[in-house]
Structure formats: C-alpha cells, structure tokens
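Cross-check.
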Amino acid sequence: SVQMRLYTLSKRQFVLVFAGFFMCFAVSVFIGVAGPPIVTEHDVNASSLQSPKVENLATGPFQLRTPTLSTFNQQLWLTSKLFIKNPKGDSIKTKFTMSVVVEGQVADSTVLITGKKTHNHTRTLHCVKNTCNDLVILHLGYLDFTTYLVRVMFYGMSDKYPVTEVEFSFKMYNPTFTQLEIWFRFVFLVLTFMVTCVFAHSLRRFSIRDWSIEQKWMSILLPLLLLYNDPIFPLTFLVNSWVPGMFDAVFQASFLCALLLFWLCAYHGIRQYERRFLTFYLPKILIVGLLWMSAVTLASWQEYNELQDPTYQYKVDTVNFTGMQIFFFVIGSVYLLYLLYLIIRAFSELRAVPCRFFSSS
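Predicted model, tokenized:
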C-alpha cells in the first residue's frame, strides 16, 4: 500500500504537527471567548405593558411586539418567567394552558404566519419560593418579517399563589456573531477545499487499490467536511425558507456519522487482511445508519412541527420524543460498546507486532 507520510515523521516533526494543531485550536477558542455574544435579548415586563394595559397578571392577555429584526438574527425565541407571592416558600408544581397567537407585521397590516390562528398547549410550571422556571413560548426557525406581534394568555393558574410579575424575553442571534459565523464558515470551507485538492493531487499517481484504509476514508471524509462547513449557508440570509437550515442539519449528521463509521473501520481494519462488504462493512453501516436516520428524523420532525405550530416543544411531546430518544441512546450504546471492543482488540494485536501498520483494504 501507499505509505502515509505520518509514518515517516521524525519526533520533532510529530511534535510540531501537534503543537500547530493545539495552537490553532487555542486561537479558535480565544476568538469564541473574546468574540461577540451569541444571543441578544430584549426583556419586557408584563406590568409595563400599556397597549393594552394588563389588568390580571395571572391570565393576561399580554400583547408583545418584537424589536426590529433582520435575517442576520436568524431565529427568534420568546420565553417567560413568572414571579409569585409565596410567603411560606413552598415548592409548587402545577399545570396550566397557554394560548398564543403569532402574527407577522407588514407596514400597518398583520399577517398570520400559520393557518391556525390560536395555538393552545398545556405547560407544567415549577416554582421554588417566589420564582418559577423559564417557559419557552415559541420558536421561529427563520424570520419572514421584520416585526412580529405575539398575544399570550394563561388559563388555569392557581389563585392560591398570586402572580406578582411576568417577565418576557425575546432572544435572537446577535447580528455581529452571525457575521463572524459567516466568515468562520467561509474560511474553513476554503481551507478544507485546499486540503482536499492537495490530498487528491498527492495520490493521483497511485492506483486506488494501493491506498491504505485511512487514505480511502480521507477521500470520503474531506468532501463530507466540505458539506459540514455548509457551502449553501449564505442562502439562509437570501431565502426566507426552512430548506437551508434543514440541509445544514443533514450535512452535519452525515459528516459526524461518517466519522463514527471511520473509527469502527479503522480499529477493526488493523491486521485485518480480508474486508468483505457483508462481514466487515455491513454491520457497521447498519449501526451508524440507524444513528444517522434517528438524528435526521429528530431534526426534521422538530422543524416540521414548528412550521405548523411555532409554539410546539419537543420536550412536551413526551410520547413520541421519549421513544425516539430511547431508540437513539440504545443504538448509541451499542456503537460505544462495539467501538470499545474493537479498540481493546486492536491494542492487544498491536502488542504482537514491532510497529503499527494498517494493511490496505
């Protein structure tokens, strides 16, 4: 097989490669820490609302208007936190109904963003002393309008603990962070393309049959890494649609699952001279394929339900979500056990040889 340059590196070169990697990683972490905040918030207290003025903080209605938005805000969340009068400091858990209407505003008119005007859902409220947990009221995966009007009402709140205040918070991506994200994705996309070209150019003289298993996998992982960096990411800001975000989720799941499959094949391929598809690759593809299908299903399921109902929450949909979550963790556990077995087996076999070489596939 074609010998990899990694095996011919001296100790000094090997240390320099790792030092360069960790230096780049440290620079990335520093930029992330010192850079702009990811999310920007706009808080509104129910007691300060004037049009219309809220008469009953336990029920509403609360009419909220978002700040001016742009496509660089990417997404929108609305959360609420209730404060109650609880002199004894009891721990409270109660259920109530939340009614939400979401409208996008165009000039002086309003447009319903979904066919169903009112969205009603049951939520569980947990309160300790005078403060209750945060509740996610709605989530918009992409922004069609520059301003949204949200009307919220509560039903079934207990009169035993009067509501003293409701704090609403609009959360969206920071436009400055979005610009940084665009540049980061572009830079890594260009670097990945350059590395892919150099890799393909260096192996052009050799037959693919002579490539080692790592070299063959690199020819698969590098194009998937291009997709992982999402070359169509700018469409998110040019097209008001859920499609670019859905492709981004599929690209990420595909690259990560291919990486998981590579680890299985690499560790199992040590001292393995025959790698038939049915006995070597098929079991691994089935395990990783189920992980990929569950990840894409969860992402598309969440996206679809939010398109139909912006107030949908997967944590509340316990029947379907719990089943899919259990399935994902079971398959993930099988993968980890299988990978651990292959790692132990590989290291035990490597002790029997003077140096480490992977045979060609």
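The radius of gyration is 27 Å. Residues 356-361 have pLDDT under 50 and may be disordered. Passed to J.P. for a second look.
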